[in-house]
Every structure is written in C-alpha cells, then in structure tokens.
Specification:
Elements lengths: L6 E10 L6 H19 L3 E9 L3 H10 L3 H19 L5 E4 L3 H16 L3 E11 L4 E3 L16 E10 L5 H10 L4 E2 L1 H12 L5 E2 L1 E2 L7 E2 L2 E6 L1 H5 L2 H4 L9 H6 L3 E6 L3 H14 L7 E5 L2 E3 L2 E2 L10 H8 L1 H11 L6 E2 L2 H30 L12 H22 L3 H22 L1 H7 L1 H22 L4 H10 L38
Parallel strand pairs: 1-2, 1-12, 2-3, 7-13, 12-13, 14-16
Antiparallel strand pairs: 4-5, 4-6, 6-8, 9-11, 10-11, 14-15
Helix pairs in contact: 2-3, 5-6, 6-10, 11-12, 12-13, 12-15, 13-15, 13-17, 14-15, 14-17, 15-17, 16-17, 17-18
The structure holds ligand ME8.
Ligand ME8 binds next to strand 1, helix 1 and strand 12.
Amino acid sequence: MTPKKKPYYITTPIYYVNAKPHIGTAYTTIAADTLARFMRLDGRDVKFLTGTDEHGQKVEQSALAKGITPQEYVDDISQEFHKLSDLFGFTNDAFIRTTQEHHKKSAQALWMKLVEKGQIYKSTYKGWYSVRDEAFYNEDEIVDGKAPTGTEVTWVEEPSYFFRLSEWQDKLLDLYENNPDFIAPKSRLNEVKSFVKGGLKDLCVSRSSFKWGIPVPNDPDHVMYVWVDALPNYISNLGFPDENATDFKRFWPEAIHILGKDIIRFHGVYWPALLMAAGLPLPKRLFAHGWWTLEGEKISKSTGNTIDPFEVVETYGADQIRYFLLREATFGRDADFSTSALVSRINSDLANDIGNLVQRVLSFAFKHAQGQIPLPNAFTENDKALLKLAADMPEKVREHANEQALHKMCEEIWAVVGEANRYVDKEEPWALRKTGIERMNTVLYVLAETIRHVAIVAQAIIPNAAGKILDQLAVSKDRRDIHALETPLISGVDIPKPEGVFPRIIAEEK
Ligand code: ME8
C-alpha cells in the first residue's frame, strides 16, 4: 500500500494592490514557489496560496486620485500580480483576492466567532494611524511626528470595535516558549517576544471613516480593519468557516507562512491571538525573510526605488533571476540587489558551472558515444564518490527545505555541480576516447547520472532550465520526481542534440 501523501500548505502574504509588483514582492512568491515545487517533487500533497489584499483606505484614496472606483482599481492591479505569476511560472494552486465573496463571508464568520466568545467590544479609538502602513501606532512609538517606519501618521478619533488582544499576552508567550520553531529566524522570534513582553493593548479592529472594506456584521457603518480582513485569507482559501471542509481539515494545521520581516508583528502576534481567541488551531510556522535593498535602502513601492521584475526577466531570464534571489541572500537576512552581483552569479554559477558541465558532457556523448548515454562498466572509487555525493544530495536539500533555508538548498545542489566539474577535469573523457572507450563510457554515465540528480532537484529552483536538461538526458516526464532517483538512469537510449541552457549572455562588468 502506498503511504498517503503528507500535506504541505505554504502561503505568501497577500500583496496590497496600491502599486504594481516589484522585485521584493516577487521574491517572497519565488521563495514559496521553490518550496512548493520541491515538496511536490518530494511526493508531498502541496497547496500553495498567494493573492492580493484589496481593501483599505490606501486603495480607496488611490482609486479616488485616479478618478475610478476602488473595484476598477483593484481589478486592474490584481492583473499585474497574475502576470507576475506567468512571468516566473509560479505554481500556486489558488490566487485569493480579498474582494471575493467567499473570502468576505469567511472573514465575517471569523468576526462573529470572536463576538460570540466575547472577544470583540465597541468603544472609541483615539490615536495615530498610518494609511500607508495600514497600522495603528501608540504615542510612544511616534518618532518626530512619524510612524516608526517613517510614514506619515494622522490623529484618528472614531467609534471603533476592539479585539481583546491584551488578554492573550500570556498565552502568546507560552506559545513562543513551547514552540520555539513557530517563528523563524530566531532574531524575529526574539523581536516578537520582546514586543509581547512589553505589554499588549486591545487592538482596534474596525474603521468607520471610509467605506472600502468588508462590512462589520450587524453594523454597516463599520468596515473591518484591513489586517483582520486580510489575515483570514489563509483559512478562507481552505473553506473556513466550514471547519469540516476537506481542505481545511487536511491543510490548516500544516500551514507555513512565508512573509517579509516588516509584517512579522501582524503574523506573529495578531494572527495567533485571533485564532486562539476564535478557538481555531494555529499555523505550524512563520518564516520572515529580510529585505532586498538597493544601495542600502529598502526596495519599496512607497519610496519608488523599485526594480521592475518584468524588465529584469526580459534582460536576464526568469530562471536567472529566481536563482540569483534565492542564492544571493541568506534567507532571513537583508541583501543588496546589484547588477554586478547578478551578472557574476549568472556567469559563474549558471553559465560556467552548471551550463558548461551539461554542455560539455552531453555534446561529447552526442558526438562520441553514438548520441546516447552509454552503459557503464565497473565503477572506480572516484566514480562511486561522485555518485554517492549526488545520491545523498536530495536528503540534504530536504532538510534545508524543511527549515526554509533556501540559500542552502542552492548551495547543496551546486556543491554537486562543482564536484562533477572537478571530476570531468580529472577523468578527461576526451582523452579516454583514444585510450579506453569502456572507461570513457563509464565516466560519461557517471556524469549523466550526476546531472540527472542535479536537474531533478534543481527543478524547484530553475524550473525551465532543469526541465530542458532532463529533456536532453531523455528522462521521461513521469520520471522527474525525487522518488525516480531511487532507480538508476536508463542509459543506452538516444539523446537529442544538446543545446546550451545557460548562455553566458552578458559581459562581466570590470
Ligand atoms: O504587507 N524585500 O502587503 P505588501 C523583500 N497586504 N520583500 C519585500 C520587499 C523587499 N524590499 N518589499 C516587499 C502587505 N516585500 C499586506 C500583507 S498578509 C495577510 C497581508 C514583500 O504589498 C515581503 O513579503 O506591502 C513583505 O512582507 C510583503 O512584500 C509586503 O507586501
């Protein structure tokens, strides 16, 4: 009996539609897509969600400025995020929009659950609000008349609903204590802990000074505060409020939320508190990655120092950008986006290391081994060492994937590529052509088998190129998952004429 596939639910933040996607927003989805792809290759039952966050004062104001309705405005920009999915080949199973009816009903149902449990009450909010952050700030957080994030704040006094967040302080601290892996990396866990230890005030969860939002049940003068509307997307996608919905039962406790460190407080404090208060299970883990910066400044749509993903993909290619973003930054830390670093990664890791390896081996086999990956003869210690390195690699990558260490996943695969290149240089198959065809065949087989391992796992990171490499190795489409690596490469079959997968497209900058 085949074991039932283990569920894996991965999400990105739902992005605000107040501006087009930029490289920072693409990054989070690339990271989640890579994990989703890897887990599918590894035989997991994956659900991968992304989408757009379409309500709030910011959207209402932007639509007004353009002279269109908020709905027209969000329909337009949401499309840009769909185009981004096509650009990078994202494999999300669903794309949620908070303006969808099923989401609105779900957020309202969560609200009602909180009301029934006495967790929501009406009062008056007096304090600072940043429209750009869609966040409330305490007096002691205001720096030189601005939010701690540097955005403009306005003084707000309006009748509002409040969530009894203050009641959840101890439960949250217990959660972090008993589940130290709930928030990663550690630095973010510590940040969240100290925020909660500093004391929690009840959270204002409705607004009445604008209309573009999900109406508060039984009080149409209020719309839900944008985060209370947005966070439940992770469960509305699974069928909540129907707690018996197949997807909710199967995927909810398995959830891994990938997000940027800017929104860790919302995910690490408000979200678990709302869920506990509603009596719902908590997600398994939150991973907050760092920021991409441009000359040290956070890349951000509000400051305008953005990098357009469509432009860089046009110039360098989608796989190249995916690889660069995943490999260059330690996942969890900030990294600077520089053209010279990008070009150098493309030329060294992609063109030189993997591109050359594949090209050298496959063209040689095509020309000098009758267009086939030949059958091997007895393996030497050197052959066995490379084959073992390749065979052990998927397990190492799996361990890193389980910890969302995306840069280490890349490193592990490329360590095999590096070793394979050293093996080619040492074994010199071109010289063996004259001195020992049998040995040449074995060397070619060992290399092809190593490349198959690399390409199968690398499908998670560079899906287009890895797919092409597998085509060139004549690996059939149904034998491209990690399970297929348990049986050896089928050699002695014709391979197509090899073509370069990663041309050295750009002259390296001096
Ligand atoms: O916060 N570097 O949406 P948002 C890396 N709607 N990642 C970046 C980045 C950068 N420079 N800039 C943005 C929201 N991001 C809410 C989320 S979820 C229930 C609601 C990424 O459009 C990063 O993932 O402002 C960050 O958390 C997210 O975009 C913020 O997207």
